[in-house]
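Quick one, tokens below:
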């Protein structure tokens, strides 16, 4: 069909799927890379934002889910399972529906944003709320997939990372080369691992003349990669990255070390400031976890750890509409107006 074909078709030579497999796709990828003038001014860098909330289910997870679901369907599986802080479950539910398969999602009770839960509900997932953390949910999902005929579609499934690396390809294809620095939020650490794989492949094949330093940012209350120790009770407003024991720990450390990058922690307060700044100054509405990359950008710039003049890309991983409760938390009640133009003018202080 016409238009962008989705990441598997667009990068067929780089994303392996079984021969003759029917590709399960919602035409994910090809997301906007938006120049950010205000962030550029604040940091003295050239900053672009990779807006992954523009994917079909509103997060970067779709890039990996198309690949994982294509493999599962080709293998004749009837159902998939995942643990999730919300976005993976939304994506798995949508792509399973598309594939005519079932999905089961394990989520930490009371700790996933409203929009994400709504997606899992409407796409028909079997939703199991667990009295435990994301890390507990992942262990349960792994054990279930090991013992029953369901495919695990968390990022421990290598097909997921093979799809997610395509974001790095798109950035290089759009900018003409990789940036100097790439900032992103880190939870279970699959995405930073996938980006580094993507940049490394392009560098090896001469499709870019450099690879970026990978800057991975975690929420201060859930920052195992920063402290070097798993966190037993992770807590943060950025529920998407509320992960205490990242599955791709080694991949993230390799990305950081081999790229000459860094891990750093950002407080919830800074995350929410960056969240509001991005929305109010750049016109880009993201979920709190995504704003960790922006909070980290500003912090490392202020600390002198971001060389002035750098080309920087920040991935913002999920759409702001995923989490309306956070957006509306500080809203003040106002009296409704009568149907009267003068009342409108007065309310807007135009008179
Ligand atoms: N940003 C968002 C919006 C996410 O949903 C996630 C992960 C991340 C960043 C971190 O990516 O785990 O690859 O380091 N969400 C997972 C989920 C855990 O279940 O949806 P990561």
């Amino acid at each position: 069909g016409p238009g962008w074909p989705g990441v598997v078709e667009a990068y067929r030579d780089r994303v392996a799927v079984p021969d003759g497999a029917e590709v399960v796709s919602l035409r994910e990828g090809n997301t906007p890379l938006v120049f950010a003038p205000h962030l550029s001014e604040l940091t003295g860098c050239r900053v672009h934002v990779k807006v992954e909330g523009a994917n079909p289910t509103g997060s970067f997870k779709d890039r990996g889910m198309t690949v994982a679901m294509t493999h599962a369907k080709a293998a004749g599986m009837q159902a998939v399972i995942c643990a999730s802080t919300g976005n993976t479950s939304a994506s798995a539910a949508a792509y399973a529906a598309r594939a005519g398969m079932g999905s089961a999602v394990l989520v930490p009770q009371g700790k996933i944003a409203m929009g994400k839960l709504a997606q899992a509900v409407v796409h028909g997932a079997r939703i199991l709320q667990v009295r435990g953390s994301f890390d507990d949910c992942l262990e349960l999902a792994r054990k279930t997939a090991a013992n029953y005929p369901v495919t695990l579609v968390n990022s421990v499934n290598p097909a997921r990372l093979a799809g997610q690396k395509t974001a790095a390809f798109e950035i290089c294809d759009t900018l003409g080369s990789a940036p100097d620095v790439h900032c992103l939020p880190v939870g279970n650490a699959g995405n930073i691992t996938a980006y580094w794989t993507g940049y490394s492949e392009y560098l090896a094949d001469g499709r870019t003349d450099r690879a970026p330093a990978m800057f991975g940012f975690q929420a201060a209350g859930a920052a195992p990669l920063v402290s070097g120790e798993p966190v037993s009770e992770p807590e943060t407003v950025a529920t998407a990255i509320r992960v205490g024991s990242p599955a791709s720990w080694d991949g993230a450390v390799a990305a950081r070390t081999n790229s000459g990058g860094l891990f750093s922690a950002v407080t919830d307060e800074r995350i929410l400031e960056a969240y509001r700044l991005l929305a109010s100054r750049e016109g880009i509405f993201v979920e709190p976890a995504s704003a960790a990359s922006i909070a980290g950008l500003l912090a490392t710039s202020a600390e002198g750890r971001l060389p002035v003049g750098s080309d920087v890309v920040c991935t913002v991983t999920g759409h702001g509409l995923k989490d309306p409760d956070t957006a509306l938390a500080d809203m003040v009640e106002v009296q409704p107006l009568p149907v009267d133009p003068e009342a409108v003018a007065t309310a807007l202080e135009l008179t």
